[in-house]
Structure formats: C-alpha cells, structure tokens
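Final paragraph of the annual report: two paired records, presented back to back.
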Amino acid sequence: MARRPRLQTYDSSADIAFLLLCYFLMTTTMGSQTGLSRRLPPIPDENQKAQDQKVNRRNIIVVRINAQDRLLAGNEPMDVSQLKDKIKIFLTNPTNDPNLPEKTATEIEGLGTRMVSKGVISLQNDRGTSYQAYIAVQNELVKAVNELRDEAAMAEFGKSFMALSEDQQRIIKDVVPQQISEAEPKDTGKKR
C-alpha cells in the first residue's frame, strides 16, 4: 500500500495578526504633544533703532507665581479660580477707575471707533514654580481674554467668537487684544 504524501498545514493566524497590526498602525492617529500657542514678535530689522517703550504703570497688572505655587495678581494674593474674573475687570475697567488701564478710542476696520483697553498682563514665575501651576495660570489668563472676545462678538455680530468668520475674528481681536508679557523666570528663593 502506497502512502499518500502528507499535506502540510498552514497556520494563517500569524498572517491575520500581521494584517491587523498593519491596519491599526495605518488608521490610528498618534496623540501629538500640544503646547501653548503664542505668536512671537517679528525679528527686528537690523537698521531699526531701538525705541524706549514706556507703558503707564496703571496699564500693567503683574501676575506672579512663586516657588510654592502661590499666586499674586497685582499685590493681591488669590486662588487661581479667582484670576479670570480679576483679569476681566482689569481689562474692561467698567467703572473707569484711575488705577485700572486707560482706554483709547481706536478706529476698528468694519466697526468704526471703539474704546480699546491698553491693559497688559505681565506674567512672572519662579524657577521653582510647578508646570501644573504655570499652565493653570496661563489657562485662566487666556480664558479671561476669550470670554471678553465672546462678549464683544455677541455685542457686535450676535454670534460667539468661534462662530465668526476669519475677518470678523480679526476685528474682534482688534477690539479685545491679548497682551500677555512673560518675564524671564527668577530664583526668588536664593539670597543675593
């Protein structure tokens, strides 16, 4: 009796696993690291003379975070949850307080003349400040500006800021500028 040749069995599970792996690698997006979006000032022209920019003291609020993550806005200690409202009042100066930023009549393209705050937020932190506290403060500062832009967008166009066209958003950014200045971190814990 002649023996029949034995058929080799082929295990296709390895091929299926490989195909599934390829499929998931091609269709899955990897999370990208996101940071704070900030636009840096343009590089000055070499021939440009340095200008001495003087800013009226009343137009600046200094927000400090120390190495223990304690927050001071102006000279007032506060919790991060209170910062947004403090900044909104500072930037809008609703009662024309002489200690808060002045407003100037500015010609805004597409809207006419509007009162625009000259307020500048100066953020200073210690080298020992935790990243978490720094980001929390940054978020509150940007949230304050975004809420003011939403309010201005509703008043001028009847829509939220994000629902506006690019041109309308640019107009609202002229009405409510975001002026946040970040100082070099300091070592406040060291004696000099």
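The closing record of the year follows.
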Amino acid sequence: MANEKLRLDKYLWAIRVFKTRTQATAACDEGKVKLNGTNVKPARIVAVGDRYDIKTPARKWTIEVTGLLHTRQAYEEAIKYYADITSEEDKLSNQRLTTSFYTGKRQSKTGRPTKKQRRDLEDFIGPVDLDD
C-alpha cells in the first residue's frame, strides 16, 4: 500500500483485539496499551517489530507487530499480522478469568419457567391466585 502509516487504534481494531475503534482509542487513552512499559496515544504510528502490552476486559495480551493491516479482516487472516507472545503467567491468569467469567445469561433449564412451562403447570394444578 502506498500509505504505510497506520494508527495504533486502527491497527488494534483491524487485528481484532478490540471490537470497535472507539474501544481501541479508549483503551489507549486509559493507559491500557503500553509500548516498552510506557503508555501510548491512539494516533501513534505502528511499526513492524513493535511490542505492545494490552489489557482488555477479557484478558492480557503481549503482541509483536509482524505486518500492517489497514482494514478489518476475518480472524484467520488477522492473526497473520501479529505474534502473540503473552507470557505463560498471563495466559494462566487469562484462563482463570474465563472460568469464573459471568456472561449474564442464565443456564438452560434453570430459573423462571417459560411461558409454555407456566401454562402447562397452571393446567395441571389450576390457576394461581396471588391475592390470597
């Protein structure tokens, strides 16, 4: 590509570390993206060989830039543009986070009955009067 300059926030979005460019920009502004231990701005120009430490809500990453990706691609394509060099210690903490991570969805067959289940129950035991 003729224009080889690429902003950091756009790169992190293109390689699918963040879902939106806004999230990538916010992470840079909040100090969650570091180059050699120092915070970087979202407009920083990315160069091949740079190593970034990234904290996302889901995990910690350490990546090395192996190529510049200007547009968002499929995951299989995007992973070719960086090397995940996350330490084993961080990978283990990422696994602990994912096992205890609550998604907000309830497990199937638990909790409130569905409308169909409630109607079947009412047909079986009769309508429930809550005024008594």
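The mean pLDDT is 83. This concludes the annual technical report; the extension proposal builds directly on these records.
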